[in-house]
Amino acid sequence: MLRTELVDVARLSRALTRTPRLASRLFTEAERRGPDGRPRGTASLAARWAAKRAAVLLLDGDPARLPSCEVLTGEGGQPLLRVPGTSGIRWHVSLSHQSGTAVASVWAEPVTGPSTSYRSPSSTG
Fold first, then answer.
1. 113 pLDDT band (50/70/90 cuts)?
2. Where along the sequence do coiled-coil regions lie (predicted)?
3. Helix 9-18 vs helix 42-59: crossing angle, to nearest 10
């Protein structure tokens, strides 16, 4: 399953300025800081927000899941998506931002094997 989400960087910037505590409610400390420890820019945060939204919409659309999703940076600089309670899913994520728009594409790959409890949200029964 694949989902792509777009976020208007300026809109997120206005929301973060209007509500200073919003950043800590939407993003973990690790998400708010880059690998070098410096604060991330709004475009980078917007791409992470797009990834979190995409993951939640792939699962069940429950906005209560958003704060627990986390987009981190791997050792090679690649984005890593962690979504608690989804051990049967391997997450793949791509982030980008340009010209005031942030985009994230998230692919949820079912993990095969005897311990997999993954079930597509679109399946019935």
1. low
2. none
3. 100
